[in-house]
What we know:
Distance between the termini: 78 Å
Order of helices and strands: EEEEHEEEHH
Amino acid sequence: xxxxxxxxxxxxxxxxxxxxxxxxxxxxxxxxxxxxxxxxxxxxxxxxxxxxxxxxxxxxxxxxxxxxxxxxxxxxxxxxxxxxxxxxxxxxxxxxxxxxxxxxxxxxxxxxxxxxxxxxxxxxxxxxxxxxxxxxxxxxxxxxxxxxxxxxxx
Length: 154
């Protein structure tokens, strides 16, 4: 008897427009206390697609927003039943803040960096964002623009 492994790959788009991030409200399960939860846009990668193309497609299909994929932020994984899921979250830059939601999404809103931790319902996502530094008030990339070493005049 062969053991057929079943895998799927998810991509998550953390969409940024200027200094705000797109949160979407989606339905999870009517048997839980809060069936609608705020999250980032995610979806499955299709066979033959690379992760960057997949996240750009998923974001545009679900929100109508074309994005430039900036960089991967973090990965995650879980197993449910016989299916093992791996995920890659990407920071994406939007050229517009006009959202056209697909039917599976209930609502959307643009939130500031300071509001992310209070809006996004999934605590595991917040912990992942904290590890990336995205929830910090400064960006380590900003320090590349400043000369932090000083030479003495001695």
